[in-house]
Structures are given as structure tokens and as C-alpha cells.
Specification:
By secondary structure, this protein is of the alpha+beta class. About 15% of the residues lie in helices and about 35% in strands. The protein has an 11-stranded antiparallel beta sheet, covered by helices on one side. The N terminus is likely disordered.
């Protein structure tokens, strides 16, 4: 269930969207949690148990009918988020604070607020950055606070390589992002963005050489690999950003190394260089 609230601001500038709020309530249904677990080949937590970190991205989605979607499969712009006509949308990165775990099978609420809008100009043209803060509460407690950075860029050839090596790592996992994984992740997160499953669209319209791996999927795999390599560490925050896209059917690695007491650096990439970076802060548990 979602409720959209727009502040009364001047209508002739993008700044009028700053302060827009959207509320969504979800039950963290056990059946959907089981589908997420199957997608990641992980054990499924039972009702009342903690939801693994970043699995909350499968919930609190506003189920809009097809008539309210744009040509790229995302919701039509100009409602909660500002209009960005003729630009391609990407999830650039974000910051997540893990305050207390959400519990499976219990109702929770997300309140989303547009906090910043900024126009920048780069080598590939004009870029519109939009920041959205999400507060997740369950049984009266703030469980997660995160900020997502969304970028709308003018159509241009995607950057597919980064001319620097992968960093030295203390642990590493290899993943093979096939189209089935991308489809299942799109399904469990109710993500209609066509670059993840529509081959003609992603290659002919947006100019990628193949299906694009979801940024949130990569971030979740990075954090999963960290938790498996460090079972006595509990993440308290994560900062992540995309450097370039990863393409399906091309294996990539999620690597990590400790950088300080209670801090780790994570990288996802392949033979073409790093693609996503993240910094984890954590606390030790018994």
C-alpha cells in the first residue's frame, strides 16, 4: 500500500519535487522471503527471524499498472520523482544504516522523501542526480535508514571498462550473472526496468552489449560475501556506488579487505576492471 504526498512548492523548477514524500506498508511475507532466498541460493529465515541485510529491497514496491509505466519499464516520471524526459535512469549508489534487523512476517513501513536534486554536466552530457531518503520502521522502531542516489543521463555509449586493476583482496567470490538470475531478481523486487531482461530494448535502444546486472543485486552479493567471509561481524552501515555496468553472462568477482578496525572495503569487478565499490562499517559479535 502506498500513499503519495507532494509539498506545495513552485511548479516551474525541479526543486518543487524536493520534500515529496511517499509511504509504503508491507508485511514482509514469508513466501516472498523464500523467493528471495532461492534467488540468492541462501537459507530462508522463518517468520519472526531477522531479514538478511539488503533483502528489504524486495519489499515496499508500489504495484503500478502498466499504463503508469514509461517506455523503459520504470514508473512514469513527474509523480513522486521529478521528470527527466529522454534520459536513461541508473541507480548510482547510496548509503545504508543498519540500526536493528527487520523481522520476517511482521508489518513494516517505509517513508520515502526526495532530499536533493542536482544538475551536473559531464563528458557524456547533462546528468540529473536525485537523492531519496528511505526510513524503515517496524513495531515503532527505526530499523533502517538509507539514501539512494539516482542518476538520469542523456543517451550516450555506456562506459564498459575501467583502466585500473582490481585491488588486492583478503576474500573473493565469483558469480556468473546469467539471464535467469537477472529475471528472478527483477521479479522478486518487482523491478520493471527493461535493461535487465529485454534484450532488444537494452541493446538497440540503450546501447548496451547485453543485459545489465542490477546495481542493488551487486551490492547485495558484495554484502553477502562479506558476511560469509566474516561470520562474527555485523554490518552497521554500507556506502556503495557504481563505476560502470556489469553485463550478464560475463563472470565477475566480489572481493574485500579490511582497511581499519571495524571497516572493510568491497569491490565488484572482472577482467575489465572494478565496477562497483563499497565501504562497510561493522561491529564484532560473539
Amino acid at each position: 500500500m502506498s500513499d503519495y504526498v507532494s509539498d506545495n512548492m513552485p511548479s516551474n523548477t525541479l526543486e518543487r519535487w524536493i520534500g515529496n514524500r511517499e509511504q509504503s506498508i508491507d508485511h514482509l511475507d514469508v513466501a516472498l522471503v523464500a523467493r528471495v532466498a532461492a534467488t540468492f541460493s541462501q537459507p530462508c529465515p522463518a517468520s519472526g527471524e531477522p531479514l538478511p541485510p539488503l533483502w528489504h529491497w524486495a519489499f515496499f514496491q508500489n504495484p503500478l499498472p502498466g499504463a503508469q509505466l514509461g517506455g523503459d519499464g520504470h514508473p512514469t516520471r513527474g509523480g513522486f520523482l521529478p521528470p527527466a524526459d529522454d534520459r536513461n535512469r541508473m541507480w548510482a549508489g547510496g548509503r545504508v544504516e543498519f540500526l536493528t534487523p527487520l523481522k520476517v512476517g511482521i508489518e513494516a513501513e517505509r517513508v520515502s522523501t526526495v532530499t536533493a536534486i542536482q544538475e551536473k554536466h559531464g563528458r557524456t552530457g547533462s546528468l540529473l542526480f536525485v537523492s531519496v531518503q528511505h526510513d524503515y520502521r517496524q513495531q515503532g522502531d527505526l530499523a533502517i535508514r538509507e539514501t539512494q542516489d539516482i542518476v538520469y543521463r542523456q543517451p550516450s555509449p555506456p562506459k564498459l571498462e575501467l583502466d585500473e586493476p582490481m585491488p588486492e583482496a583478503e576474500w573473493s567470490r565469483t558469480f556468473e550473472p546469467d539471464p535467469v538470475l537477472l529475471f528472478r531478481y527483477s521479479a522478486v523486487t518487482f523491478n520493471g526496468h527493461r535493461i535487465h531482461y529485454d534484450w532488444p530494448y537494452v541493446t538497440e535502444i540503450e546501447g548496451y552489449p547485453g543485459l545489465v546486472v542490477h546495481g542493488p543485486l551487486i551490492a547485495t552479493l558484495q554484502l553477502q560475501a562479506f558476511c560469509e567471509a566474516n561470520p562474527h561481524a555485523r554490518p552497521t552501515s554500507m556506502r556503495y556506488r557504481g563505476l560502470r555496468p556489469l553485463i550478464a553472462d560475463k563472470p565477475f568477482q566480489t572481493t574485500g579487505r579490511m582497511t581499519d578496525h571495524g571497516t572493510a572495503e568491497l569491490t565488484a569487478g572482472n577482467v575489465d576492471g572494478p565496477a562497483h565499490r563499497a565501504t562497510i562499517e561493522f561491529e564484532h559479535i560473539e
